[in-house]
Structures are given as structure tokens and as C-alpha cells.
């Protein structure tokens, strides 16, 4: 499911690599829970001020006792997909560019597809509406049976207990996902749009300026 010079399976753990997070407590934390977060979104809090995780939205692909893995959904690279994976570019959902899925294994690629529950050769459904695609499968054959395709380089990885600690210290809001989040046509607005649909005060953060010093 993951392909590259240093290919790894989508469930391979980042054996201790650390995510680029700040440690200062935020004060108001979103949903903090030790529950498994597979299939949910991690929305970066304002505590994360720089790096790939700044205003990021991460889809958690797997979370268990061995750690967690996911992909950042809203960081398009503007790079040509066919330069890395010939044949996939014409089938990718707009914007049809490579996305950076995280800081781990940037020499590997991972593909997500929108599925409706039917079995598709070369696709492993991982939760409702979302599947991992074998990037060695014929692109046209896969694309004909799925509703959307997005290609990522790299992924986000957390060692055992690391994600739980980052939730406690206020780095992330854990919220429900929708299948269309992984294939947003406007990834630059995904952080704000996910927050806007949350209940209560959490929705107000969607209107926070990029530069907090701006009134």
C-alpha cells in the first residue's frame, strides 16, 4: 500500500521518530481521550505554530498499543504525480498534485481512495468510505471503480503513548471525520471548515487569523 525507495507498509511504525510539536500547554484542549482514534481527524491547535503540522488536519489511519499513523490531508506540494507514479496523475482528484502526508519516509508514497463498500482489486478498505490503494495496481482499473484518488508522500507517525501525550498537552483536537475530508477540493480551507462544523466554542477557532497578533 505504501510505495517508494524505502517502502513500508501503511501499518509500519515510525520507530521513535518525533512529530514536530511544541510542548507549551494551550489551556483549552479539545476532545482528550485515550480511546483509539483510527478513522478520526486530528486538528492542530493554535499551539502548533510552525512546520508541517501548523494548521494541519490529520486522518488517523491506525492507532493501537504500538502507536499511531496517519496522513496530513491539507498540505499540497504542487508537485507532478506522474513524475513519481506514472499513470496516476490523470486519475487524481483536484487539486491533482502530490500531498505531503507527514514528515516520515518522504521517499515513499501512499494512496487513499474513496470507496462505497464494494470490493475493488488493489484496494484495502480501512474504514467507512476510505481505502488504501496498491500503487502498483493499474491506475485506470482502480480509478474506474473508486470515487476519488489522492496521493501522499510521507506520513505522520507516533510512537507508543506519544499521541496520547500530545492530546493531553493540547496539541490536537480529536474530532469525527467525513469521507470527503480526505479528498477536499480546497485543502487550504480544510482546517477552518472542519473546525466550523464542530459544536460550541471549538467552532470559533475557525475564524482565528493566521497571525494571532492581528485583531
Number of strands: 10
The CATH topology is VC0467-like
Quaternary class: single chain
Give the C-alpha Rg. Answer: 17 Å
Element string (H = helix, E = strand): EEEEEEEEHEHEH
Largest sheet: 10 strands, mixed
Q: Which architecture per CATH? A: 3-Layer(aba) Sandwich
Q: Assign the structural class, choosing from mainly alpha, mainly beta, alpha/beta, alpha+beta, or little secondary structure.
A: mainly beta
In DSSP terms (H or I, runs of 4 or more residues), the helix count works out at 3
Number of domains: 1
Determine the fraction of residues in helical runs and give it as a percent range: under 10%
Keywords for this entry:
VC0467-like, 215 residues
Give a topology summary.
Blueprint: E1 2-4, E2 41-44, E3 57-64, E4 67-72, E5 99-100, E6 104-114, E7 123-127, E8 130-133, H1 139-143, E9 148-158, H2 162-168, E10 172-175, H3 190-196
Short description:
The protein has 215 residues and is mainly β. Helix content is 9%, strand content 27%.
Structural features, described:
The N and C termini lie far apart (45 Å). The model is unreliable at 4-34 (pLDDT under 50). The protein has helices at residues 139-143, 162-168, 190-196; strands at residues 2-4, 41-44, 57-64, 67-72, 99-100, 104-114, 123-127, 130-133, 148-158, 172-175. Strands 1, 2, 3, 4, 5, 6, 7, 8, 9 and 10 form a ten-stranded mixed β-sheet that branches. The protein has one domain (2-201): VC0467-like, CATH 3.40.1740. With 215 residues, the protein is mainly beta. The chain is built from three helices and ten strands; from the N terminus they run ββββββββαβαβα. 9% of the residues lie in helices and 27% in strands.
Amino acid at each position: 500500500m505504501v510505495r517508494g525507495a524505502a517502502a513500508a507498509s501503511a501499518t509500519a511504525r515510525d520507530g521513535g521518530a518525533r512529530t514536530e510539536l511544541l510542548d507549551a500547554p494551550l489551556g483549552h484542549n479539545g476532545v482528550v481521550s485515550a480511546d483509539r482514534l483510527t478513522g478520526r481527524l486530528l486538528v492542530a491547535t493554535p499551539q502548533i505554530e510552525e512546520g508541517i503540522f501548523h494548521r494541519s488536519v490529520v486522518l488517523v489511519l491506525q492507532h493501537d498499543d504500538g502507536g499511531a499513523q496517519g496522513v496530513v490531508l491539507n498540505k499540497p506540494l504542487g508537485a507532478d504525480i506522474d513524475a513519481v507514479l506514472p499513470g496516476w496523475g490523470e486519475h487524481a482528484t483536484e487539486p491533482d498534485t502530490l500531498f505531503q502526508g507527514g514528515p516520515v519516509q518522504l521517499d515513499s508514497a501512499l494512496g487513499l481512495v474513496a470507496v462505497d463498500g464494494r470490493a475493488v482489486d488493489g484496494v484495502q478498505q480501512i474504514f467507512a468510505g476510505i481505502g488504501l490503494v496498491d500503487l502498483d495496481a493499474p491506475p485506470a482499473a482502480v480509478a474506474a471503480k473508486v470515487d476519488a484518488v489522492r496521493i501522499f508522500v510521507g506520513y505522520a507517525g507516533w510512537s507508543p503513548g506519544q499521541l496520547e501525550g500530545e492530546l493531553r498537552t493540547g496539541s490536537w483536537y480529536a474530532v469525527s471525520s467525513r469521507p470527503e475530508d480526505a479528498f477536499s477540493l480546497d485543502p487550504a480551507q480544510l482546517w477552518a471548515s472542519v473546525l466550523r462544523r464542530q459544536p460550541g466554542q471549538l467552532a470559533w477557532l475557525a475564524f482565528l487569523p493566521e497571525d494571532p497578533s492581528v485583531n
